[in-house]
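ok trying this again, last paste got cut off
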Amino acid sequence: MAGTFAVGGLVSGLNWYDVIDQLMEIEHRRVDILENKKSDYQTKLSYWGTVSSKLSTLLSDVRTLNNLSTMGAMTASSSDETVLTATATSAASIGNYSIIISALAQAHKLSSDEISSTDTALGYSGELAINGNVVEVESTDTLSDIKDKINSADAGVTATILKVSDSSYRLILTREETGSTEIALADVNGDTLLEDLGLVDTSDSSQDNSLWFSDTTSTIKSLIGSAASFTSQTVTINGTNVSIDLSQDSLQEIKDKLVAAGIGATIESDTDSSGNTIYRINITSRISSYTDSANTLEVLGFVKPGVKNQLEAAQDASLTVDGLSVTRSTNQISDLIEGVTLNLLDTSATAVTLTVSQDTGTRKQAIEDFVSSYNSLMSYIREQFSYDPDTDSEAQPLMGDSTLRYIEEAIRDIIISQVSGLSSTINALSRIGITTDYNTGELEIDDSTLDDYLANNAQDIIDLFTASATTTDPDVTYMTHSDDTVAGTYGITITQVAEKAWVEGDYVIDSGGISQDETLTFTVDGSTEVVVELSAGDKIDDIVNKINSEMDSQGVEVTASNDGGKLKITHNYYGSAHTVEVVSNRTSSSTSTGIGTTAKSDTGQDVAGYFTQGEDTYAATGSGLYLTGSEGETKGLMVGISSDTTGDQGQITLIFGVAEQLERKLDSWTSSDGLISTRQEGLQDTIDDLEDRISDMEAQLELKRQQMEAQFTNMEMLLNQLKATSDWLTQQVSAWYS
């Protein structure tokens, strides 16, 4: 074979290996042609990779332009950033605010008495509660152990140890959240740990609200995580005795006991910083006097032990905005001025001016980035299509590529076209100073014109680039659209209004309340079951509060209400996906809830309707309050309908700005099954096919070489035999004559 050290023609004297190599070189020319084609396609594939990358960059910049958080960006600046800084979102409005900060929010911080060692057993034992979370202390615990246990209790307090001297240490408790809420401390079940540590003294005071708890039905013992053996204790409030057993009673049951004893009380609900619903008892008759057995009222939070060593008072931030006094629990305030977050840094006797204005810098940067990536793409495409036979030895790999030409023309059409639906004064990029250089095809920015529009016509800029929608009926709200939706004006007709599922008792409940204990069993959305226990004497408002508290505690989206004295149960959401069913263990009457022993049930109703354009009608699908186009030009167009009547709901006009149009086009091209991937896959398929053909041809040529080598070898063998015969004949003749 070629490439070995074998030498042909030892008999014939002919170097037939060279002959074979020359013949094979001629035969290989067909393969070389395919190899060159393969190389050309690989080069094209590489260049399409560059096109894909530039399109992806352009898409990223277009998405930024098509984002309201960018194009609607606002900025907030402070006249004194040592006192106040601020940030603004697109929801903010232009304006100036005069702000005086009289106090910063700070967290409650307190200290124990001095303790001589951090690693010596203190000999204290029992339970203490911090913000309603129990910490169990054993006699072998050191100061460091107690610190660690407090930190592990997830009580919203951080415990640290302050070294005063080599023989003096203090336990420091700091509330994790700032604001006027103090650290709630309580010794559990008659223990004196707080006094032993020097965190509290012997004084105490009352407040009309209990601590916040996570639900109203679990026992207080389980809610605080106590291992103590509580027994029923008698407490006195305003001269009235009430028996409370923290191991058996829930928040609801304690409230009911207070009411039954003639002490006005209600259960209030709120939401904590994590979004969880929390509950507490509010004594409406006010606490003027009390006695507390075994710290029962202290554990509940109605009694506050006196703090012995307060290092920092719990304090809300206090400020005036344009002369109006406000307080907040934190120094980062996001609910005061819409779309603006204030960061309070220091107090100031003089006013600080907060200025909220258009963030023209962010918007212009987004436009400049878009123009840059657009120009980079168009320059690359122009380079591919540029060929001068007098100066260029060969054309670029993508010269004449129809797909690339289509991409160029489609993008350029969007850039130079007017945006349908906008005023002629702001319906094209040229109106804001972005024009095309027709020699290069690239965009140019007139900074003066653009800056003027950014400063004075912000909404026009937003509309020019992004998708926008307007409705003629206040009961119609534009929600979103899909890639299938076509810009235009569409009529909206409603054939069925959305409804919530609801049921109601048959009777107005007597003013004296229900006559017997009653159990209501709810089934919500076909699967979730909630049981609410009512007590004899519960009035309509008590029943409503108990149901709502239980629904809140279990995260069930159902609300009870007083409908003219009748109990009404309503699902919080609209639509046929939501159902409510309730049944009672008592017959329906005015001395019960009126629900009765036969289940009452209802299913919500979806909005129904369709879209129109001229004489064309497009079907739509309803889900709750939302109507979504399911065919034609309106496919994917979603609107919210709050009307309670059927019929004509006016029109919605959907306008697609330049960035919206480009994003839709670029996104479809660069998707996994889009135009670019299809083009690259086609090239790769061609390359793979050529490689297969080349491999087959190489195999055939190798077989042909082997055949030729075998033929020449056989020739050598025949020649060798002939030579041997000739030599023998020569020898015979010579012998004859000799």
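PB: full thing came through this time. Residues 1-7 have pLDDT under 50 and may be disordered.
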